[in-house]
Design goal:
The protein is an all-alpha fold and 400 residues long. It is globular, with a radius of gyration of 21 Å. One of its GO terms (biological process) is proton transmembrane transport.
Length: 400
């Protein structure tokens, strides 16, 4: 209860000073992460936080379900773009898988002798991008719209594609001796299939009911915000009850519901987006706790090297070549390759891993995640403004 009170108090304080802090480049993720480090470190912390409790595990699962739902509904269609495609297919289905494979191989080189499934889990944790550390960049009109659109769409859908693979790799790490690899594959396919069915049915029914209720005058766009708020929880719970993957169900529900929600208007998704933001702040506070615990006795150069590789070469090269021929020039392709920030998605996956894996394996994943996200917050945080200014100077020079 104390941890909840502290997070809520921090949220209230941040809301009062958000604009002032933004002028000093102090973002909400940075503020909550620092607060988590300061308040939860040591053997007798000011704010005790038990990440091994079952309630923590279930709570983190619900956080991920909401974030996946919001990501599915939030990726804008950017109708003002002359070119409808911004290479999102190549980013999601070519660059992302290649990045994960490269991260697994890099893990084997940096951490020789480590279990391949553990390396796979770690790669799936550190490679999905998150937009929080570069949120200001995505609203900066000095940056070409197609670059912002590509990053926004990739950030919105990458975690939805990664989540079933993450669950599958975790299952292989903790599987009983009686469970064969084939059994786990069949189980994963079954869970994903059931989740897709649940997501499609629930998302379609919800979209039709919302349209009809609004058309008949039974509800207003404002009151329908509550309907949008409960949908990710309904999708997760329904899928789990029928034996499906709750994360996939929440994501698919968001995809199917998105068009109707945007058509209804009236900021129909505003409430669930605010809830997701509140949950994300709590996740950043948890990240502070993880960082304080993992690096209390120092940080190994191996995880620093791995984090740097994950943020640079392992993402940059696949992205740079994947979007070739999609209308991006070299500087824009470089920007897409570099600005793959990490954040809430990686933190949530790491917390799920540490609550399910044996202590040593869980710490391995969390170590890699903490190093990668910390480096991302610093490197991407200090580079987004110079990149935006460079695009501005480039555009100005081009008009002369």
């Amino acid at each position: 209860m104390l941890a909840l009170l502290v997070v809520l108090s921090l949220l209230f304080a941040w809301a009062l000073a958000a604009d002032r802090l933004a002028r000093w480049s102090i973002t909400a993720p940075l503020a909550f992460a620092v607060a988590g480090i300061v308040l939860t470190r040591g053997y007798d912390p000011a704010v005790p936080l038990d990440l091994e409790a079952h309630s923590t595990y279930r709570g983190v699962e619900l956080v991920l379900a909401v974030l996946l739902f919001v990501d599915a509904t939030e990726a804008e269609q950017y109708e003002e773009l002359e070119q409808r495609s911004v290479g999102e297919g190549r980013l999601l289905f070519l660059a992302l898988p290649v990045s994960v494979v490269l991260a697994t191989l890099a893990g084997a080189a940096v951490f020789p002798g480590t279990n391949w499934w553990l390396l796979g889990v770690t790669a799936l944790v550190v490679m999905p991008m998150d937009l929080a550390p570069i949120s200001m960049f995505l609203r900066d009109r000095r940056v070409p719209l197609r670059v912002r659109a590509a990053l926004n769409i990739e950030g919105g859908f990458s975690d939805g594609l990664i989540s079933p693979l993450f669950v599958f790799c975790i299952a292989n790490l903790v599987r009983a001796h009686s469970s064969s690899f084939a059994d786990l594959v069949v189980r994963a396919v079954k869970e994903a299939g059931l989740a897709v069915v649940v997501g499609i049915v629930l998302g379609y029914l919800a979209s039709q009911l919302v349209r009809r209720a609004l058309g008949a005058g039974w509800a207003s766009a404002g009151t329908l915000r509550l309907a949008s708020l409960v949908l990710p929880f309904m999708a997760y719970a329904t899928s789990v009850l029928v034996g499906g993957n709750g994360f996939v169900a929440a994501f698919v529900t968001g995809l199917c519901y998105s068009a109707a929600a945007h058509a209804v208007g009236g900021n129909n998704l505003e409430l669930v987006h605010d809830m997701a933001q509140l949950m994300a702040f709590a996740v950043w506070f948890t990240f502070g706790k993880l960082t304080a615990d993992e690096f209390a006795s120092g940080i190994g150069w191996g995880v620093v090297l791995y984090g740097l590789l994950a943020l640079t070469v392992l993402r940059f090269v696949p992205v740079y070549f994947a979007v070739a021929g999609k209308g991006f020039d070299r500087p824009e392709r470089c920007a897409l390759g570099w600005l793959g920030s990490r954040g809430v998605t990686s933190i949530v996956f790491a917390v799920l891993a540490v609550t399910q894996l044996p202590p040593a394996e869980g710490r391995f994943v969390v170590n890699a995640m903490c190093a990668t996200v910390l480096l991302s917050v610093v490197l991407h945080g200090v580079s987004v403004v110079p990149v935006a200014r460079w695009f501005e100077r480039r555009a100005t020079a081009g008009t002369k």
